[in-house]
Description:
Chains A, B: Keywords: Hydrolase, Metal-binding, Multifunctional enzyme, NADP, Oxidoreductase, Riboflavin biosynthesis, Zinc. By secondary structure, chain A is α/β, with parallel strands linked by helices. Chain A has helices at about 1-10, 60-65, 95-100, 120-125, 135-140, 145-150, 180-195, 200-210, 260-270; strands spanning about 20-25, 30-35, 35-40, 45-50, 75-80, 105-110, 130-135, 155-165, 170, 195-200, 225-230, 240, 255-260, 275-280, 290, 310-315, 320-325.
Amino acid sequence: MAAAAALAERGRPLSRPNPAVGAIIVANGPVQGASGPVPCPSGPVVGQGWTQPGGRPHAEAMALEQAGNRAKGATLYVTLEPCAHRSTRGPACADLVSKSGLSRVIIGTCDPDPRTAGQGITHIQQAGIAVTLAQSKSAEDSLSGYLRQRLSGRPHVTLKLALSLDGMIALGNGESRWITGPEARAHTHRERARADAILVGGGTLRADNPRLDVRLPGLEKRSPQRLVLTGGAVPTGWHAISEPAEICGLEGIQYLFIEGGAQTAAAFLKADLVDRLLLYRAPILIGGGQPSIADLGLTGLAAAHHRWTFQDRRQLGSDTLEIYERNPCLPA
Amino acid sequence: MAAAAALAERGRPLSRPNPAVGAIIVANGPVQGASGPVPCPSGPVVGQGWTQPGGRPHAEAMALEQAGNRAKGATLYVTLEPCAHRSTRGPACADLVSKSGLSRVIIGTCDPDPRTAGQGITHIQQAGIAVTLAQSKSAEDSLSGYLRQRLSGRPHVTLKLALSLDGMIALGNGESRWITGPEARAHTHRERARADAILVGGGTLRADNPRLDVRLPGLEKRSPQRLVLTGGAVPTGWHAISEPAEICGLEGIQYLFIEGGAQTAAAFLKADLVDRLLLYRAPILIGGGQPSIADLGLTGLAAAHHRWTFQDRRQLGSDTLEIYERNPCLPA
């Protein structure tokens, strides 16, 4: 399932408005059980698929097409419940799977789309195919934008900060180029390429006039939609929202990437609209510079604790990237 | 040598004013070379020593005493060059080693004390014992306070900060208890127990009236001398210095531990008098709180880079400790 989730990454973000799904079909190998041969997905991979740009074909359709007759008796791993609703754009995956000859389907997580929501599983089971719901963390993580939209009606939000060891994003005079090195900045461009939209505050837009595009070879066309949090007018090519809650009404945005500044970071954090922190930290001290986050209105330290869970850390040149996630036990 | 450096830690800080040295004597094992048996320290450890409280006996004396006759033909690993100067408090270690019957001495680093400074090595060589100078990083690290005093006339300085992810040491209203958890605070007490003196700023002293003692079972008596950076009067039990450079005149302090606040941190950093950063970081965001370091007078980011080298990281409960060292390539 982790391999299927990794395949799904290839569909992100161009699968929008559809979820980026991954699918792998594994042939059964000859495994001998106590009372004779037991079907077991230990054979070769006979099909792989991921949601294609624009949302079609779906991952399951691509993997089944690739497998052809070799799907007979095989096992499908798919990160999301196959869709149950027919569309003018293509067949329902639950139909395709039901007619495939597969013996077993392992599903990463349910699709909360009311047109599917369990009906995909039922449909496949009725065709005599064994279905297992894995409730896989890697599948859920790979679908976090889609699931957040379906369950909370808003995009999955990443807040990115590029900091000194003492938490500053600029000198007192505003100089911020560069705190982090080229490896960390390239990683930020990769994260931009995975987002549907990027947002900055009005102050950052006026001060820096940032391009916010993706400057990685081959990924230039992945540059996301540009949003700005401001009550004022914005230049052509930018879409303004006047408060964080307005992200709830944005169509087709599964992944929102927030790049600053301190007022914008604070506004989204106060509204509890941040799911993930990307902290790029350089081994420097600034002292008396510009803090990364404006006032959050905390009246006690207790309220600051238990909100963030460490997820991952990696070295990027001399900088360190730390990823924290909003504590999954907090109410959504 | 790393094992001898770890032994030396047992002498810290009570060996003061002497360096905390570690020594291990290893018997030669029967190793066969191309042209017959070759002496090689592959046998058992026959003696171990570390500088005792008050500075005597020295590590070599303790290890030789323990080894007795088994020192004959053996190899001594010692973190610092054995002393060459006789004292009313005990014999010179170079004399003891010369008469020991050891076949070989491996020395971590030279002693810059002008009464030894190479004379210890010469004396031992003249006794027909092979001497190797290892220039060991672990030996030098374990002697950093002593070496800093001898070479720069000041203590080795550690600056400790307990921070949120966004680099704050307190809420805007001053609340700072607690940012880090019990594991990190216990680690700080252990670091206090390894220091000869702790320093805070006058503001921290007035605001928090900190005890700055060691609250670890069995280590209560290790509570270090208490210093305060202030131009004003100080309570009994505290020693005042009016500017960072005054640490150069402090007798018997090899390791100084600075605990805050932001003005004091900035004063020592501006004076380039910090050798090591201990950053305890809690997984919380504060936003609009009190920054850890006041203005450093930087006019450009270039001056902030290449000053700190990552040394170590460890998890302490939900907090992370990161240790950085002043870039060893910078002029002292």
